[in-house]
Write a structure and sequence with these properties.
Layout: E1 2-6, H1 10-22, E2 26-30, H2 33-42, E3 47-50, H3 59-68, E4 75-79, H4 84-92, E5 97-100, H5 105-120, E6 126-129, E7 132-135, E8 140-143, E9 146-148, H6 152-163, E10 169-170, H7 171-179, H8 189-201, E11 210-213, E12 217-220
Length: 222
Amino acid sequence: MKILLAEDDLAISTVLEKRLKFSGYDVTVVDNGEDALAFVMADNYDIVISDIMMPKMDGIELLKAVRAKKKDVPVLFLTAKDSTSDVVTGLDSGADDYMVKPFEFSELFARIRLLTRRRYGSRENVYSVGDLTIDAMTRKVERAGREITLSKKEYELLLLLVQNKNIVISKERISDRLYGLDDEIESNTIAVYINFLRKKVDDGFDKKLIETIRGVGYTIKD
């Protein structure tokens, strides 16, 4: 599941990003409303988590711009603005939910699950590319009905590619997803895992799903 997090407080965004990624979410972080709008329009996110008080464009302006452009992505406000009038303004502007800081992560995750269930129904956690399917709830991977057994890193890499199918993912973004922001890895580590995936996902099939874009990164195409 792809989440856009718009939060200008670095301490909060850093903790949120790590907790969300640890829980298996693909997270993009921006620190102002203008960048948030650009990312929303350039990609398909499953949910936007946004502060209200941000530079360049506040959360209310961001939400109105998103809705004006007919984007129906769920938006959850996560903000310190806690008055009843603030909540009413946020919801009346088109927000799908509203949470006040400080907050409990368990409640935030529950609200994320609720919003995605409303949008996608029971198949919210099933992703597919061609004849390849991933059930993110059970972590079951199949191609043409044949189950594929993957290591934890292989699964996380494949899920990232499938969630962003037809989009080129850089080695840096893959490294961030698999190892975290602060870990250093060998330069060929990502290529090694891509090769592992190719052997398990593409070998034996005429159509190869995983592609290398030389000098840029990797993609999976349907």
